[in-house]
Each structure stands twice: as C-alpha cells, then as structure tokens.
Write a structure and sequence with these properties.
The complex is a heterodimer of chains A (about 250) and B (about 500). Chain A has about 250 residues and is mostly helical. Chain A has one domain (about 1-245). In chain A, about 80% of the residues lie in helices and about 0% in strands. The longest helix of chain A has about 35 residues, at about 90-125. Chain B contains ten helices and 19 strands. Chain B has helices at about 1-15, 20-35, 245, 290-310, 310-320, 325-360, 370-395, 400-420, 425-435, 465-490, and strands at about 60-65, 65-75, 75-90, 95-100, 105-110, 120-125, 130-135, 140, 155-160, 165-170, 175-185, 190-200, 200-205, 215-220, 220-225, 235-240, 250-255, 260-265, 270. In chain B, strands 3, 4, 9, 10, 11, 15, 17 and 18 form an eight-stranded antiparallel beta sheet that branches. In chain B, a hairpin with a 2-residue loop joins strand 3 and strand 4. In chain B, helix 4 packs parallel to helix 7 and helix 8 (about 400-420) runs antiparallel to helix 9 (about 425-435). Classes of the chains: A mainly alpha (about 250), B alpha+beta (about 500). The interface of A and B includes residues 75, 168, 179 and 182 of A. Chain A: Keywords: Membrane, Transmembrane, Transmembrane helix.
Chain lengths: ~250, ~500
C-alpha cells in the first residue's frame, strides 16, 4: 500500500505525466477522426470494418502509452532516483508491481476517455447505415481497446525495467509494434504471414477491434488479446528477473 | 572544426551500446535481406518451370504481345497504310462491352524477328492518345492528336534507312507529317515489317477506400481495319506474346477487299509491377531497412540525450561556446558514419539478396545497374538523414523516450498507415509531406505514363520521385535541427 502511494506520488509529480495522458487521448481521437473523415464510402459500405476504422487512432495512442510507461521506469534510472527507491523499499518485486499497477491504472483511465470519444466521432463521421454491427461486438471492441492500451503499458514497463535505458526500451517497443507488421507484409508465403499475424503483439492484440468477417481473422478477438497479454507477462517476467538479479 | 569533429567522433565511438546497436542495425538488414522466407517455383521443378520473361534491349522486363501481320524486308524500304476504323472491347466478368482502352494500339511496325523482347520501332494510332511513334518498349513520342473514326481515317508510313526508322502520319495520304526519327542499333539486313494491333489490360480500383488495393482488371481487345497498303503479299499472321493474346476470343486477322481487319490483345511496352504483376522487385531485399531505422534512431537520439543525462553537455558547451557548431559537428559525424555503414550493408543485401531469391526460385524483376546503384545509395542516405533527424529530435526534446518516439512516429508510422489502413488518396498525400516520403528512394520499378496501371504506394509506387522524397526528409531534418539549435542557444544547458 505504501509502495502504491509512493509510486502514485512519483507518477503524479513527474512533469510530463499529465501531458502524456492528454496526449494519449488527443492522439487516439485525432487519428481516428482523421481516418474516418478521409475514407470514401460507397452508399452503405466503406469496405472496412467501421468499428475498427473508428479506432484507428489506437495505432498512434499506443506510442504515447509506451512513452509514459518507459519514462516511469527509465526516468528513475537516468536521475539516479532508482537507488533511493530501492533503498527505501527493498522488496523490489513489490515496487515493480506497484509501479505497474499505478501506470496501468493511469493509462486505462485515459484510454477509457479516448475510446468512447473516438467511437462516437466515427459514428458521427461515417454514414449511419454503415455503422450497424451488433452492440455486443461494439462493446467488446471498445472495452478490448482499453485493455489493449493497458497491456501495451505493461509490455513497455517490463521492457524498460529489463533494459533500464529509455532510448533502447522505447526503440524495442516501437520496433515490436510497428516493424513486425511491415515485415509481415513483405512475407509472401501465406502460412508464414498468418503465423506472424497470430504472434506479433500489435496485429494479434488489435484483433479485439474487429466486429465483422471474424472468420477471416488469423485468430479470434479474445485469443488475440491473450497473445498480447502473454507478451506483456513475458516482458514483466524479464523485467522482474533482471531487477532481482542485478545491481540497481 | 577539426578538433570538434574529432571530439564528437570519440564520443560516438564510446557511446555505451552504440557498437551493439550498429551491429544490430546491420545484422537486421542482412538477415532480413539474405535469409528471406520467400519461396518461388521458378526453375525448381526442372527446366520446364523456368520463369522466362521477355527482356527488352535495355535489360528491363517488357510486354511483347500483339497480333502481327508481317512479311520480310531486306535492306531499306517503306510501308504505308491507312487505318480507316478502330474499335475496342473490354472483357469483364459479365461479357464483352464496348470500351476502347486509351492505350490500345494499331499501326505499322518494323521488328527484329518474332522473339519476345526483340528490338522494334512502330508508328501507331492509339485509343485516346493520338498518333505515337514508339521504339524499344521504353520510348514514346507524340504525334498529331485525335481518334480514328470512319470520317477521319489516319494514314501511317514507316521508313527504314539503315539504322534509323522514320514514322510519319497524314490525314489524307498527301500531306505528310514526321512524328519522329529514331535510331535502332544493330538491326540485321532482313527485318519483319507489317501491321500490328494490340490492347493492354485494364485495371481499376474496386473500392477507393481500401489502402490494401482490391483491384479488378482483365484483358481488352482492339480491332482495326487497314487499307491502301502499298506493299503486296504474301502476308503471314502471327500472335506474339503471352497467353492472353491466345485466350481472348476474336483475336486474329481477316483479309478484306482492300486490306485487312486485325484484332489484337496485349501490349508492346515496359512491364510494370502491380496488383497483377508477377515476381518481386529488388526493393524486396531491403525490407530490413525498417528494423535498421529503429536502431539508428535510437543511436541518434542517445548521442545527444546521453550528454544531458550525464551532465557532459555542460563540459561540451564550455569547450565549444558556439553551440550551433556542436550540433553541426554531431550531425556530420553521425550522418557520415551511418551513411558509410548503410552503403556497405545495402550493397551486400541488394547484390547477394537477389541471388538468394533467384536461388529460391523467386522471379526477381530485372533492374538496371543505375537503378540498383540509386536504390543502394538511397537506402544509405535514408538511414543517414533519418539518424540526423533523430539527433535533432533528441536535441529539441532532451528526453530520449519522447525523442525516439517522435522520430519513429514521423518516419515509420506514416509508411505503415499508407500501406495498410488509409485510402489511396490520403496515403499518397501522407507520403508527400511526411518524412516517410524518403522511402521513394527505394522504388526500383519506374512508373510509365504510357502504361495504364494503378500506380499506388502498396504496389511499390510512391507519389514523389526519389530525390524529392529525400528533400522532404532533409527539410524536416533541417527544420527540427534548426529549432533545436535555436533552443540550445536560448536555454540553459
């Protein structure tokens, strides 16, 4: 509890936090609205899943989430605050858990604001008759996107703890998120392409946003989010392991 | 300045992890370029399975498919004919419909035999681009505009004189207008001369909203009536080129009282990569550039933010009070190092990656030496300028996580959006103004105005030429570095 309070104070008083949280919302909503405004629809069909389209901004928002999570760890190492932290609270795993809880809570709160606004903007910008998926699927896509951003925060936090350098950690996170889909596009073998789509954190995790043609997805929406959760768990495990085994 | 450069080189050299990051960048490009998962079927199932593509006199792949009514001609000579009618049909899933392809061609041709890709020169009327004189697939010259109709026939004349061919056109057969005189090197004494008709594939986007193109297309055919021939028979007819010219119904020729009616399908033009294009371009070997980009961005950012973190910047600026020069020296050292590394790695990947792909049975579109050189140097320039842009973001934002993200988002995200979710119009717009425009340097398949195709980013066609794309990236870099220099002057270190 004491650890949670300490981590919350650090996050709250860090100068960038409120701007980054606002950035998550702004980036997600702005890119989503732009994508919906740019699309050319024919009558009732936009050629794409309208719900997924109205959440396009997740692509940009997740990068801001990654910055927030990486800075929460990396900032502490670069200023030497980490030594004070672990002297005051020697149970290192407790500190990591508290930090993960606080950062994820902040990200989920921002995402819970950004996602409904993006979806409402999509609803307003896209032709009404194209926006007709079942309500349960819309709810799943929205709630799933909030969870997706929370898991991205955990993934970034774990990698930053393992690497301790903000620059290297953010590079790794952005590489995992953005470069794997580009490499996937270049693979011509359909079986390999499917395997990559099933295992890459972004393409698997974003399956949660699909509301139509579910049978064409490389894996089911919740299974996709599960793959991302495995990535996040793996990164946190790696972070915990290096945290215990190394000097601060 | 020399001392400054030396100091900055020493700092780069001793930056923790920089060797690891550089090796990782090079390794990612090499691994993804030389150990590709691509497998093809060309030549792997015995000699019958060789992928033989027509290659033109310039070493590029070409389409050479048309209906040819010809006779041999030895030495110099002339052929004259009148095209009195030209119609076109499109063959869609629901049957034939009347629609002339804008680049449907009917006219006179002199050609070095019937082998696919052999040299030729032709003067022709087209569906919507008037009279043209074309030769050796790549070269096109415009003549008088206007379509052929029954009331407006078009006279054409082709003259061989040694190694030069002259194409002329006339509205009435009396007043002649020279369209072009072109050189055709190494032409044997005996060539084939005659009439030809062809009509290229059409392609249209099924849904403009999809970035990942759903293209629909199919063959077209054209029929032209030739009369007032000045050469007498015998004539032989031959359908040259790919299977489409055999499968399309109605292709062939029919003698009339005054000449011939010829129907053809196909094209005599450079081959283009597109939704229906076979094979991969040499750009495919450079897919690792994206991974390398992340590494050089991290190096570029860490090169300056590391100084802030360790307080080194105060010493640096105390030693060199002219702060702008520090930034310039850093940019020069970093840019030159990344360029050198990028050049070496890109050269290895492009040269040996093609061999690996061919060995795996993948058909690699041929590219000229100049194009390969441009793609290699362009990749090195792209990585180099991108690392300097990252340095600028680092100097401006001073926090490595924010700076790395800014650099990656401005370069990689626009590319990813353009290739996947954005509609074609927005994708092209984004690839004009964002730093991702510089990926145009890696385009290895040229765009030809005389070949109708969907020239879209996700089939490897960028809206800007390579040098302009690099200029866009350089402008971003100059702007960010300028802002950073300004801020460095104004603020305490």
């Amino acid at each position: 509890m004491r650890q949670l309070h300490a981590e919350w104070t650090k996050l709250r008083t860090s100068p960038g936090t409120k701007w980054l949280l606002a950035g998550i919302i702004a980036a997600t909503v702005a890119l989503s609205a732009l994508a919906c405004a740019a699309i050319v629809c024919r009558a009732s069909d936009c050629g794409q899943d309208p719900v997924k389209l109205s959440l396009t901004g997740t692509l940009l928002g997740q990068a801001v989430v990654a910055i927030l999570a990486v800075l929460a760890v990396g900032g502490e190492y670069s200023t030497g605050l980490a030594r004070v932290t672990y002297t005051a609270m020697p149970r290192r795993l407790g500190v990591l858990a508290a930090k993960a809880a606080v950062v994820t809570a902040a990200v989920v709160a921002a995402a819970a604001v950004a996602v409904p606004i993006s979806m409402l903007a999509g609803h307003a910008l896209l032709p009404a008759q194209s926006f007709t998926p079942p309500a349960s699927a819309v709810l799943r896509a929205g709630a799933g996107t909030v969870l997706y951003l929370g898991l991205i925060a955990l993934l970034s936090l774990g990698l930053a703890t393992a690497m301790r350098s903000s620059a290297a950690a953010i590079g790794t996170v952005l590489g995992l998120l953005f470069v794997i889909p580009i490499l996937t596009q270049a693979v011509s073998d359909p079986a390999w392409q499917r395997h990559l789509e099933q295992s890459a954190p972004m393409s698997a995790g974003l399956a949660i946003q699909a509301t139509r043609d579910l049978q064409d997805l490389p894996l089911s929406p919740w299974a996709g989010l599960g793959v991302l959760a495995l990535w996040a768990a793996g990164a946190l495990g790696l972070g915990a392991w290096t945290l215990l085994g190394r000097d601060v | 300045m020399r001392n400054l450069l030396h100091a900055e080189w020493t700092k780069l050299r001793t930056l923790p992890g920089w060797i690891f990051a550089m090796i990782a960048a090079a390794g990612a490009m090499l691994a993804l370029g030389l150990l590709p998962g691509l497998q093809g079927s060309c030549g792997t199932q015995g000699p019958q399975s060789q992928c033989v593509a027509a290659v033109g006199p310039d070493g590029l792949e070409v389409s050479d498919s048309f209906t040819f009514v010809h006779q041999a001609m030895t030495g110099d000579g002339t052929i004259t004919a009148r095209v009195s009618q030209m119609t076109g049909q499109r063959l869609g899933p629901d049957g034939e419909q009347d629609a002339m392809a804008p680049w449907a061609k009917a006219g006179l041709i002199v050609k070095d035999g019937t082998a696919a890709g052999s040299a030729y020169a032709a003067v022709m009327v087209t569906g919507a681009h008037g009279v043209r004189m074309q030769h050796n697939y790549l070269y096109d010259k415009a003549g008088p505009a206007g379509q052929v109709t029954q009331t407006q026939p078009r006279w054409l004349r082709l003259t061989r004189s040694g190694d030069t061919i002259t194409g002329q056109s006339s509205p009435d057969g009396v007043t002649w207008n020279t369209v072009a005189t072109v050189p055709l090197k190494h032409l044997p004494p005996t060539v084939l001369i005659g009439m030809f008709v062809t009509s290229p594939q059409y392609a249209e986007a099924m849904n403009e909203s999809l970035g990942a193109v759903g293209a629909s297309g199919g063959p077209t055919k054209a029929t032209a009536t030739f009369d007032h021939l000045d050469r007498t028979g015998p004539w032989s007819e031959q359908r040259l080129g790919g299977s489409t010219n055999f499968e399309v119904p109605g292709v062939g020729f029919e003698p009339t009282d005054t000449g011939f009616t010829i129907t053809g399908s196909g094209d005599i033009a450079p081959a283009v990569a597109g939704p229906a294009g076979a094979g991969v371009s040499i750009t495919e070997t450079l897919v690792g550039t994206f991974a390398a980009l992340i590494f050089v961005v991290v190096i570029g950012v860490g090169y300056i933010t590391g100084e802030y973190r360790h307080g080194m910047i105060r010493m640096t600026l105390a030693a060199t009070p002219r702060r702008g020069r520090v930034l310039a020296a850093k940019a020069a050292v970093l840019g030159a190092t990344v360029f050198t590394l990028g050049l070496a790695v890109a050269a290895i990947v492009v040269i040996f990656g093609q061999k690996v792909l061919r060995g795996n049975g993948v058909y690699v579109l041929p590219a000229t030496g100049a194009t390969q050189l441009r793609v290699i140097a362009g990749t090195a320039a792209l990585l180099s300028v991108a690392s300097v842009l990252a340095l600028g973001w680092g100097a401006l934002l001073r926090r490595s996580a924010t700076a790395v993200t800014a650099a990656v988002l401005t370069i990689v995200l626009p590319y990813l959006l353009a290739m996947t979710v954005l509609p074609a119009g927005a994708a092209q717009w984004l690839l004009r103004i964002s730093p991702a425009a510089a990926f145009a340097l890696q385009q290895s398949t040229p765009q030809y105005y005389q070949v109708a195709n969907l020239y879209l980013p996700n089939s490897g066609y960028y809206p800007l030429p390579g040098w302009a794309g690099l200029a866009v990236l350089a402008a971003w870099t100059a702007a960010v570095l300028g802002l950073a220099a300004h801020r460095l002057h104004r603020r305490d270190a």
